[in-house]
Specification:
single chain, alpha+beta, 434 Repressor (Amino-terminal Domain), Jelly Rolls, 2 domains, 6-stranded antiparallel sheet, 3-stranded antiparallel sheet, 24% helix, 31% strand, elongated, Helix-turn-helix domain-containing protein, RmlC-like_jellyroll, TransReg_Diox_bact_type, Cupin_2, DNA binding
Length: 177
């Protein structure tokens, strides 16, 4: 791996000169130049200092770029049942990631499966219709354009109180659906 070349790429992305990077890391411009030309190797502590200034973690710096899909179309989605409604999974294999976005679609009067407590949190945004977020202690009515954020430790469910279909963009972190 060409460490110096990667450091230079990150430095240039931030529009920093070698001198500016040297000043921020308390190193010399000559050392930064030698490093970027792979004429010397930094200690782990020095590399961590440089990467901190460049806004890059060690893990990110040493990971190989993956041909990871970042744009998804409706062809990539899949649908599964959720109580009386359906989940449209917006990102395939999102269960292995930190965030799991779905669109919950509920026909009139339907309710999704009760969400059991877990370590994490959930965010929802009502795309269409009216729903009721029900926890053990309260019921909250939400309409199109409203959103909610709830601690995953709270047992809860969502029910459609609209005269017609309702849709909620629902994001769980970490993934838990």
């Amino acid at each position: 791996m060409e460490i110096g070349k990667k450091i230079k790429q990150y430095r240039l992305k931030l529009d920093l000169t070698q001198e500016e990077l040297a000043q921020r890391t308390e190193l010399t411009k000559g050392y930064i130049s030698q490093l970027e030309n792979d004429l010397c190797s930094p200690s782990i502590a020095t590399l961590e200092d440089i990467l901190h200034i460049l806004g890059v973690s060690l893990q990110e710096f040493f990971s190989e770029p993956a041909n990871e899909q970042i744009v998804f179309t409706s062809d990539d989605y899949f649908v599964s049942k959720n109580g009386g409604g359906t989940n449209t999974w917006l990102i395939p294999n999102s269960q292995v990631k930190e965030m799991e976005p779905i669109i919950l679609t509920l026909p009139q009067g339907a309710q999704c499966e009760e969400r059991l407590p877990f370590e994490g949190e959930e965010f929802g945004y009502v795309l269409q219709g009216k729903v009721e977020l029900v926890t053990l202690r309260e019921k909250c009515k939400l309409k199109q354009g409203d959103s909610f954020s709830i601690d995953g430790k709270k047992q809860h469910t969502i029910r459609n109180i609209n005269k017609g279909e309702s849709k909620v963009l629902w994001v769980t972190t970490p993934s838990n659906f």
